[in-house]
């Protein structure tokens, strides 16, 4: 479980599930109840369906040595990953030639073959591989990419659903 004092952990997307709260008296040996308080926050967060706590605040004071700890329970997701096309892209005379196609990758699953020449992507004519790479990088995993492909003397229309780059 992520525990953070940051209001917004960098690079993470999260959904607020609720607030968590714990209080206790601190003993004279440097706050022996703090681990119990943290455990209480974590248990509450889990009950709310969260997998993290952000914006943790602690207040200590008073004659009795009171300690209050609060936090925001969140369900942490991941930012969309790097889109994955799954094929080698090469400059061609009129478009982008498909080189090696990764077995089981998005390009293969949606019908692209080595030797195909992509002439259009998302309705626009392609001039080189860098242009198609830019289109792919600007997309997210799960986005659909409409392609017109020159294959065996005729044009074929295909739609590739981009995947997430494998680790």
Q: Which helices and strands, and how do they pair?
A:
Blueprint: E1 2-3, E2 12-25, H1 34-47, E3 52-61, E4 66-78, E5 83-84, E6 87-92, E7 95-101, H2 106-109, E8 117-121, E9 124-125, H3 129-137, E10 144-151, E11 154-161, E12 163-164
Parallel strand pairs: 1-3
Antiparallel strand pairs: 2-4, 3-4, 5-12, 6-7, 7-8, 8-9, 8-10, 10-11
Protein name: PDZ domain-containing protein
Pfam families: PDZ_2
Domain PDZ: 83-153
Task: Give an overview in words.
The protein has 167 residues and is an alpha+beta fold. The protein contains 3 helices and 12 strands; from the N terminus they run ββαβββββαββαβββ. The strands form 3 sheets. Strands 6, 7, 8, 9, 10 and 11 form a 6-stranded antiparallel sheet that branches. Strands 1-3-4-2 form a 4-stranded mixed sheet, covered by helices on one side. Strand 8 and strand 9 form a beta hairpin.
Entry keywords:
PDZ; PDZ domain-containing protein; UPF0145_dom_sf; PDZ_sf; alpha+beta; 6-stranded antiparallel sheet; 167 residues; 4-stranded mixed sheet
Short précis:
With 167 residues, the chain is α+β, with helices and mostly antiparallel strands.
Helix content class:
10-25%
Uncertain ranges: none
**Rg, please?**
26 Å
Overall mean confidence score, pLDDT: 84
Quote the beta fraction: over 45%
Distance between the termini: 22 Å
According to DSSP, the number of beta strands is 12
Shape: rod-shaped
Kindly report the oligomeric state of this protein.
single chain
């Amino acid at each position: 479980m992520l525990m953070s004092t940051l209001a917004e952990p960098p690079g993470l997307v999260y959904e607020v599930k609720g607030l968590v709260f714990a209080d206790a008296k601190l003993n004279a040996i440097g706050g022996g109840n703090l681990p119990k308080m943290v455990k209480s926050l974590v248990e509450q967060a889990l009950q709310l369906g969260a997998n993290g706590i952000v914006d943790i605040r602690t207040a200590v004071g008073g004659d009795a040595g009171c300690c209050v700890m609060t936090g925001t329970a969140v369900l942490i997701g991941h930012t969309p990953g790097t889109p994955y096309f799954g094929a080698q892209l090469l400059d061609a005379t009129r478009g982008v030639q498909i080189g090696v196609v990764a077995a089981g990758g998005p390009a293969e699953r949606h019908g692209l073959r080595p030797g195909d020449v992509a002439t259009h992507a998302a309705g626009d004519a392609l001039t080189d591989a860098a242009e198609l790479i830019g289109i792919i990088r600007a997309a997210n995993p799960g986005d659909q990419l409409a392609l017109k492909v020159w294959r065996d003397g005729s044009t074929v229309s295909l739609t590739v659903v981009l995947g997430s780059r494998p680790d």
